[in-house]
Amino acid sequence: MASFGSNEGNILQNSGNNTIKELPRLLIAVVLVAGISIPVMDYYMPGQFSGGGKWNQQRLLRLLLGPEQILCYIAFTWACLILYAKKAEVERQCEAFSLNLLSLDSSHRILPQDARLIQRKIADQSKGKGPLILPQLLETSLNRFSVTKSCSDVVDAVKMQSDVVIDRMVTSMSTVNYLAWSLPAIGFLGTVRGLAGSLSMGAETEKAMSSFIKEATAHLNVAFDCTLVALALSILLMFFLHIIQKEEENLVLDCKQYCLDNLVARLDDSKKSDAAFDESNESYQLEFNSEK
Description:
mainly alpha; 10 helices; disordered N terminus
């Protein structure tokens, strides 16, 4: 069985590198697509990437600033602040792997009579550090083991408690999901406002044709600008949401793996003699007192 230190290192390394390993694939995809599409477009459609002087500073300001755009920026910033807090919480939860929650000796076997003592040790190690998922899983599993004295029941307890944690994480993302959905809706409001303004120009027949076309085009610009900004922010927000949800799921999976490797694998639900129980209990008591 691997030692506690090696398991801890593997868990944190795997959790942190899952997203990093995907970045080179993204860069390869960008380079391949850009390296093929840009030369082809430039050859068959010359001047496609030249602005022709149309995208000046005033035009960019009209694109990026407006009532609907400002509402989109507020919703996007709100969601990003929530996701930043989620990211900080995941990093705080990962610190639990560095705590000495279980014995460093992989040869120790855990008897049902030892469960209460180990629970007190875990509570002492995690005291003052706020709610932590890993100690909660360990304490729930040890409590089940002390009552049922069955390893299979402990595995079920780990799975059920992990499902509860994941459900809570999903529920806590409800506000971010709503904001990600609301961004395109806000953009469509701007689209409707712009189209309505453009259609209302049809009743003004007394205006000159050049003035009519200029004002109608301005309303259409408002319509499509709002949609463009809203959809771009929505895509970016969904990417951030995907990253944080993946990190949360990896955190719960790492906690489950830790429980299986360092707790379930050491459980001994067979009948032990009184001498074996006294020896095991004494060893845990000495270790618990020395760590305190």
